[in-house]
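Team,

Forwarding the record for the chain on the shared tracking sheet. I've put the sequence and predicted structure together so nobody has to dig through attachments.
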Amino acid sequence: MRMEKTYNPQDVEDKWYKYWLDQKFFSSKPNPDKEPFTIVIPPPNVTGVLHMGHMLNNTIQDVLTRRARMQGKEACWVPGTDHASIATEAKVVKMLKEEKGINKKDISRDEFLSYAWEWKEKYGGIILEQLKKLGASCDWDRTRFTMDEDYYKEVISVFVDLHKKGLIYRGVRMVNWDPQGKTALSDEEVIHREVNSRLFYVKYKIKDEDEFVTIATTRPETILGDSAVCVNPNDERFKHLIGKKVIIPMVNREVPVIGDDYVDMEFGTGCLKITPAHDLNDYEIGIRHNLEVIDILEDDGTLSEKAQFFVGEDRFVVRKKIVKELEAMEQLVKIEDMVNKVGFSERTDAVIEPKLSMQWFMKMDGLSKPALENVMNDNIKFYPSKFKNTYKHWMENIRDWCISRQLWWGHRIPAWYLPDGSYVVGNNEEGALKLAQEKDASLTLADLRQEEDVLDTWASSWLWPISVFNGINDPDNEDIKYYYPTNDLVTAPEILFFWVARMIITGYEYKGELPFKNVYLTGIVRDKQRRKMSKSLGNSPDPLDLIDKYGADGIRTGMLFSSPAGNDLLFDEKLCLQGRNFSNKIWNALRLVKGLEVKDELSGSDNEVAIQWFQSRFNKAVEEIEDHYSKFRISDALMTTYKLVWNDFCSWYLEMVKPDFEQPIDKKTYDQTINFFEQIVRLLHPFMPFITEEIWHLIGERSEKDCIVVAKYPELLPYDSAILKEAEAVFEVITNIRNLRNSKGINKSQALDLYIKTSDKGFYGKFESILQRLANLSKVEYVTEKVEGAISFVYTADEFFVPIAGEIDVEKEKEKILSEIEYTKGFLKSVDKKLGNKRFVNNAPAKVVENEKQKKKDAEEKLVALEAALSSL
């Protein structure tokens, strides 16, 4: 392959992605000779398009999958989409109204579903195509959709099974009602936000008396549904009213004053209005006191006939009108501005109404126990582990799950009602009819009416790790036995309870084991002002535009440069520029090497120490990177790789072995440098798949299947710690001399002398030729005393002298040394503090503690040398 002068991602990325697909590198089949590595994609909504959160999440998944594939594992990354009942139905309803002038209420369920499927086929799955631009190495032949026929059957089977076990039931309960979506929501689908509200103080007249009680409410429209007034029975101000009647304003309904300990005597006026149909706490008080339930709201948030006033008008319009009425009746005492939390629908952003409704529920108490236990004992590990506390709180306070939704798009609940009002639950119509005929042999299918509601979307996606492999209805199939449990789950903390907890529940309920071993929780992608990126704020760039501008590799690395697990990522486009510049750096490094003239007869002996050093440096970096991966510190793994390539390979190694201008390089050094390039791109490939594949083929001739995507990942190999320490010292000396040149205005071409006062001449001897060449030194000599008329600097316990022409500014030199002494003392203090911490010393790995002790020793030796240098001035 010919190497272009500049790297152009657009010429490379589509070419290699198509090649990988054509060669079936991402396809996976059970292979008993290989260890499986399985990831299931958190299925994005079928309505969705790629956003920055998807970019981060799927980059991490791809890094883990590509690395596992290169490690020789049978890597299987299963993609797919979620049918997203509420979001998809809302889009289809909007499309029908705007494009066809059709209202949902005017067509049948079957007609609506035909439009929904048509919409899904046209627009659904766009996001999966977009993920290919990112380089996602999914097994696309395994793509699943939560309403695929096989998946649908698995969802229905689980419903039937849990109903048989008595874990699913139907009943009237207080639910979160979305008046715009006209459906119930679970607690987790309600977003509570602080809003500016008003508190209305209203007078309720006591029957047959001139006395009033004052009640404060933020929802005066619910006055029309009041069933009682409640006070604390221990409240001396009001306990004499218990048993009396008050008259509800406007409707003039007489309701009792009741006593209940629920009332906080210190809060508000100490009197509560009780509206059992429209507040969860009121509902529970209503049950205790056998109160009438008056539902004044229709499903769309307008007032019902039971309200008596403002029938058919929107709840918020009524709020304003009823306040005016109360003012006119002189029953409005005052209005106060306040800030309170209000629940909003996650999907439609409508204000939620607590509402009594007949729904289907799942008992969660018993089901959740194994899921809690196996996270708390670390059988399933969370990264970062801080989320275990959040998870524990949720799981210990779990409530029964409202699993029904008043929609048409979704998994229709498999319950059929009989003429007498009872119902049967079956896998299909035939099964339901058979059960119905056990009750009444004369019944036919025409006598049965299927439940209109569909299941909550999460009640299908909670089966994802099992059902993508058809593990419910075909529990012994080859795929589920090989790929389950999966390895890693990469997702966002906000769906820890929605989805992660529920998948763990089904894993133990239906497979008797965990669904995944590790849960990596990403942070939220925010802008530089710490605002969550969103279309509404206009602060979220189009990921595809970024890919066009910087290349997929640039975006992938840009996202990961500042993405520690569980912590929010402050996205800055400069990170993508840094990623693109990294691609260019690697490309130009290869151009430099490939452009060298190679001669067999040259010995290359001067480069042997450079080769030995870089091989050890590479091996140590692999060890560090493996440690980062084992702790899911993906950002740190990338940063270590980045520094290895940019600093160690490009800035030091290539400078060491690069011949003088227009001079050839020996073949041994050249071959070893090409070998290092191969090792580097194999290490880099999971992060930067496209440029590494291009370089892999530029480095040497490859066969059709010899691609880096399936090349062997670098192994953990031993390294020489001594040579690394020596090189570090030499690089420090070179850097000091270069800085000295800059500060004194000495030309790079002017050779300098260097005198080293050290107890170990051999330490620098190995690298002496490199030291001379990279620092441009005319000579290196070892001394036992201070060199007069020279500028000095200290590294560890050694002192270095560089004679320069002109007077030495003694005061400046003193100032510099004093500053370094101050810094070294501070560093020593921090190391001492760490080593004085018994928890650290007892719990940290021995290698880490030993490393800190070495830092202490080096700092103490440096301090001695600095103080000696200071005293000699």
